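Input/output pair, single chain:
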Amino acid sequence: MLELEQKEEDFKWTDGGEFCKVFGETPRNKIIEEFLCGRGIDFPIISLMQETALDRTVVKAIVAELLAEQLIIPTRRYRNMQFYQLNRKNPKAQELLKVFDELLRKIGKEYQIPKDSS
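Output:
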């Protein structure tokens, strides 16, 4: 059973989540995990940089790769920022979502509080 408490000094916002624990904590996987977590949300480059603690050039290069693979799509522009969102029509993205959702279900079961039998 996983412990429900985690010491604050052990946790870093820049650590990858469960997806990165399973598939490896690479810059690409951190960005993919952001899109999987926020599947209905679009992100500009700056938000991806802040959430993953990655350098702008790294994020831009990975976003370009993901665009070429059609895993993400451009959604809108606001001022000078282009926003991107997970391309839920892409079969590869659909498979990633299934795996991610299964990881979340597994975590949910591990953290499930037993029902009181009284």
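The chain is about 50% helix and 15% strand. The domain at 16-106 is CATH 1.10.10.10 (Arc Repressor Mutant, subunit A).
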